[in-house]
Every structure is written in structure tokens, then in C-alpha cells.
Design a protein that fits this description.
By secondary structure, the protein is α/β, with parallel strands linked by helices. The chain has eleven helices and 16 strands. Its cofactor is Mn(2+). One of its GO terms (molecular function) is metal ion binding.
Length: 400
């Protein structure tokens, strides 16, 4: 494994920053303290900083010793999740109901370490923009930064992202061209019937039975309308209705999520859901309101950039440690918005099985969005070394 010696030496210092951020989690667009820590730390290393993109986003700009007209972006997310931490070790969350359960504190730390190395050495051509993004967890911070002018203020030829992946061995990476994360979409269906006594259902219009039939009918979209080679998920995660055993309620509400790897598939599913809802409710004499919200598009790696990342990673950890046939995840990631604007690639870095956690961790697994999760600090030198090599090699490549 080829790691930058300086970054290895900084591990205790960067780990302390990571754990401080973990202890003070902030939710989407509330990352005021975190952004301040990031900005002041970058400035202390002589890096030019721009604040306020996407409300709390931070961008640091590092110029190499020579300029070749090229620029590359490296992105980390900063926000935490609205959930209770189960860990009790020293750096556990100090804010009830808020937790870094997805490792964004670690992503921030890895990029900070890389930024310090690049700023101290500057032995590269061109410009590196380090992007610290707010509000990845469902609030579209990447799009907010773009809308505020990210790629206009900081033009770049490519942009890259990275996420820790529990269950993957430390020292391994996953990268694939094409889709790596799914789109994220939510829906709500409100069925309006006519309330009645449960013993006299003929006097009412039952929205419960309509909800039951609709819940099953919607699954036929995946099994009968979708191309089976194009993955998709329709999950009804909530059904709310009724208040008493002997009362047929006035209405029923279904909510859930849809995940796809292609916009074509998403169009098909949304249209079929609307049609099935309309006709099923009409057949059962109910009125229906159908709402479909497209939150994040699929995260689709550009093939050339994915191949380049794989080559860089192999030079650091070896061919056997880079999995180029990973199965994409039905989870979502708003880095997708950046990849729709600029070529780039998103990779996974193995976070291990959880045995790195300090005494006092929760009894649950070390999985993303779990109260017992904690980022593996052994990844800091590895992830930061990857960022440095990726940026340096990308900017040096004359074909880019």
C-alpha cells in the first residue's frame, strides 16, 4: 500500500478534527460550526476559501506550481442525520437526536488531509478545488451549491466523490462505470372515500380496501411493466388510515419510495403509478390525489473517469484490492447532480466490519444509518492519499 508519508504522520491531528466534528453533528443546512472548522482549518494552511455556496458549503482552491488551464474538483459531504447515537465513547454525539451515522465526518477529514498535503507541496499542474458540501442527506445540498454557481465560480474539468462502505475490507475500493447509486424519489397517494359504520359498509365507500388493492397492484409495475434487466424498487413504507375497530374511515394515505438506475425506467414507473392509482380508485368509487417527487437522480459514473480512478487506486493498493464489478446500491447520493454537470466518478472505500470502534460503541452493527456506526479513522491516510494521487495524476494527464 502506497501512502503519502506526511499524511500518515498527520493522522492523529486529522483524527482529532474528525472526532470533534462527530461529537458536534449538524443537520442539513445547519452545518455552521462544521463549515467554520473546515474553513478556518483550510485558511490556516494558506488555502483560499469561499464560503456560503448552498448556504453552508465551503470551497477551497489550491493552485499548483504551474498552471496548465485545467482544474479538478474533489468533494466531501458534511451533514449528519436526525437520529440518536447509541455509542457512548468519548467522541459520541453531544447533541441528542443528531448523529454522524453515515461517515460524513470522515469524508470531511479525508479531504482536509488531502488539501493540506496539496497546499504544502503544490507539486502539480493546474488547480484543485476541494468542495465541502452541506445537506447530502435528502436535502440536495449538491444541487444547492450548483444553483449558487459552483461550476461557474470554480470551473473544473472533472469532479470526484468518495463514500465509506461498511462491510468492505479496509484497504479495498469499489468502482464501476455507469450507475453506482440509484435515484431517490418519494410518493404520496391519498384515497378519499366515505366514512361509515363498520357493520354497514354498504353505506360508505371504503378507502382501506382501495389502499390494500392499490398496494398490491403497484407491485405489478416492477414485475410486469419494467424491463427485468433494468433494476427498480417500489416500496410502500407507510399506510395510514382508521381510528377505531368499528369505523370505516374517510380516507387512507400511502407513502413510499421509488428507486431506479435510469431516467427512462423512472418515467415508466411514475406514469404507470399514476394510471393505476387513477383507475383503481375510480373502480372502487374513491377519489385519489397522487403526488410524485423526484429527489435525487441516479449517480452515474462516467466510464472514462471510472477507469482512470481504478488505475489510480490500483497504483495505491494493488489490483486485487480494487473491485470493478461491484453491485450498485439502491441507496441514493446527491453527488449525482454534480455528475450530471461535469464528468467524474464516485467510489466506495471499505470501512471494515466495525472492529475498529472504541470501547463504548453501541451493540448494533457498524452499518450506515445505524446508531452504533462509527467511521474508521484508519481510512484517513488511505483516502487522503487517493485524493492526492487522483488530483495530481488527472491534472498531469495531457489527454484530459
Amino acid at each position: 500500500m502506497k501512502l503519502a508519508e506526511a499524511i500518515v504522520g498527520w493522522k492523529p491531528e486529522i483524527t482529532a478534527i474528525r472526532r470533534d466534528i462527530h461529537a458536534h453533528p449538524e443537520l442539513a443546512y445547519e452545518e455552521v460550526r462544521t463549515a467554520d472548522v473546515v474553513a478556518k482549518t483550510l485558511e490556516s494552511w494558506g488555502i483560499t476559501v469561499h464560503r456560503g455556496l448552498g448556504i453552508t458549503g465551503v470551497v477551497g482552491t489550491i493552485h499548483g506550481k504551474k498552471q496548465n488551464g485545467k482544474a479538478v474538483g474533489l468533494r466531501a459531504d458534511m451533514d449528519a442525520l436526525p437520529m440518536q447515537e447509541a455509542n457512548t465513547f468519548e467522541h459520541a454525539s453531544q447533541h441528542p437526536g443528531k448523529m454522524h451515522a453515515c461517515g460524513h465526518d470522515g469524508h470531511t477529514a479525508m479531504l482536509l488531509a488531502a488539501a493540506r498535503y496539496l497546499a504544502e507541496h503544490r507539486d502539480f499542474e493546474g488547480t484543485v478545488h476541494v468542495i465541502f458540501q452541506p445537506a447530502e442527506e435528502g436535502q440536495g445540498g449538491a444541487k444547492a451549491m450548483i444553483d449558487d454557481g459552483l461550476f461557474k465560480l470554480f470551473p473544473m474539468d472533472a469532479v470526484f466523490g468518495m463514500h465509506n462502505w461498511p462491510g468492505m475490507e479496509v484497504g479495498t475500493f469499489g468502482v464501476v462505470g455507469g450507475p453506482i447509486m440509484a435515484s431517490s424519489n418519494t410518493f404520496e397517494i391519498v384515497l378519499e372515500g366515505k366514512g361509515a359504520h363498520g357493520a354497514m359498509p354498504h353505506l360508505g365507500v371504503d378507502p382501506v380496501m382501495a389502499a390494500v388493492q392499490l398496494a398490491q397492484s403497484l407491485q405489478t409495475i416492477v414485475t410486469r411493466n419494467r424491463n427485468p434487466l433494468d433494476p427498480a424498487v417500489i416500496s410502500i413504507t407507510q399506510i395510514h388510515t382508521g381510528s377505531a375497530d368499528n369505523v370505516i374511515p374517510n380516507d387512507a394515505t400511502l407513502r413510499g419510495t421509488v428507486r431506479t438506475f435510469s431516467d427512462h425506467n423512472l418515467d415508466l414507473i411514475e406514469n404507470r403509478m399514476r394510471d393505476i392509482t387513477e383507475h383503481t380508485s375510480r373502480a372502487l368509487d374513491c377519489q385519489a390525489r397522487f403526488t410524485f417527487l423526484r429527489r435525487y437522480p441516479p449517480t452515474i459514473n462516467h466510464d472514462r473517469e471510472a477507469a482512470f480512478c481504478a488505475d489510480v487506486l490500483k497504483g495505491i493498493v494493488g489490483d486485487a484490492q480494487v473491485d470493478q464489478s461491484i453491485q450498485p446500491s439502491m441507496g441514493a447520493e446527491d453527488f449525482a447532480f454534480m455528475l450530471k454537470e461535469v464528468p467524474g466518478c464516485y467510489v466506495w472505500i471499505g470501512n471494515g466490519q466495525g472492529d475498529h470502534r472504541d470501547q463504548g460503541h453501541g451493540l448494533g452493527p457498524c452499518m450506515l444509518h445505524n446508531g452504533s456506526y462509527d467511521f474508521n479513522d484508519d481510512l484517513i491516510p488511505l483516502g487522503a492519499s487517493y485524493w492526492v494521487e487522483l488530483a495530481t495524476q488527472w491534472l498531469a494527464n495531457p489527454t484530459r
